[in-house]
């Protein structure tokens, strides 16, 4: 699948989305972007499956950086139990389901803010992807002068540098 033309076309669109939309939101003109993003399909009527990640913050897992910015991008409309639940600030516990339409996305600090999903009892399948981004300005320069990015995630993502298009 990773070498299919359809997936390569998706990655080209994803790269353009990151360069044109996501990177400018990081406050600079370059950032390390998770590539490929994590694609999620949450079927209608899907119970909260055992073995799935429950309520968590990314900081609970090794190899995440406090500099990460999370972006959640639904490809279908979502609300209620067909959505992602996120607390508004670290430790607040005021979870609410995101209500988004196709074309909208949500930016949050998933390293410190807990998030989770519930059993999908809505009758509508949700398709979404999520990604993590680290602004280039948050990288530490090593003694040899090389820029070493933080390791993003423990899920085998590839880091790639996306630069904002300059016109």
Task: Write a short abstract of this structure.
By secondary structure, this protein is mainly beta. It has a single domain (5-163), classed as q2cbj1_9rhob like domain (Jelly Rolls, Sandwich), CATH 2.60.120.
Q: Which terms summarize this structure?
A:
single chain; 167 residues; mainly beta; Jelly Rolls; 6-stranded antiparallel β-sheet; 3-stranded antiparallel β-sheet; 1 helix; 11% helix; globular; disordered C terminus
Describe the structure.
- With 167 residues, the protein is mainly β.
- It has one helix at residues 5-22; strands spanning 30-35, 38-42, 69-74, 85-86, 96-97, 106-108, 115-116, 126-135, 140-141, 147-148, 158-163.
- The longest helix is centred in the first third of the chain and has 18 residues, at 5-22.
- The protein starts with a helix and ends with a strand.
| CATH-defined architecture | Sandwich
Tell me, briefly, the overall form. Answer: globular
Report on the biggest sheet.
Answer: 6 strands, antiparallel
Mean pLDDT score, rounded? 82
Give the oligomeric state of the chains in this entry, treating copies of one chain as homo and distinct chains as hetero.
Answer: single chain
Question: SS-based structural class?
Answer: mainly beta
The first-to-last residue Cα distance is 34 Å
What share of residues are in beta strands? 25-35%
Low-confidence stretches: 152-160, 163-167
**How many E-type strands?**
11
* Cα radius of gyration in angstroms: 17 Å
Total domains, how many? 1
H/I helix tally: 1
Would you give the CATH topology?
Answer: Jelly Rolls
Return the string of H and E elements.
HEEEEEEEEEEE
The CATH class: Mainly Beta
């Amino acid at each position: 699948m990773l070498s299919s033309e359809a997936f390569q076309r998706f990655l080209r669109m994803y790269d353009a989305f990151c360069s044109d939309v996501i990177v400018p939101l990081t406050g600079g003109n370059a950032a390390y972007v998770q590539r490929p993003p994590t694609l999620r399909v949450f079927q209608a009527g899907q119970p909260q499956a055992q073995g799935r990640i429950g309520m968590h913050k990314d900081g609970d897992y090794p190899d995440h950086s406090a500099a990460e910015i999370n972006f959640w991008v639904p490809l279908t409309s979502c609300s209620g139990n067909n959505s992602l639940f996120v607390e508004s600030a670290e430790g607040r516990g005021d979870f609410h389901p995101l209500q988004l339409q196709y074309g909208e996305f949500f930016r949050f600090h998933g390293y410190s803010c807990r998030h989770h999903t519930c059993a999908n009892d809505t009758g509508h399948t949700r398709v979404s992807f999520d990604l993590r981004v680290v602004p280039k300005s948050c990288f530490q320069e090593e003694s040899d002068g090389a820029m070493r990015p933080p390791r993003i995630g423990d899920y085998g993502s590839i880091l790639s540098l996306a630069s904002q298009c300059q016109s």
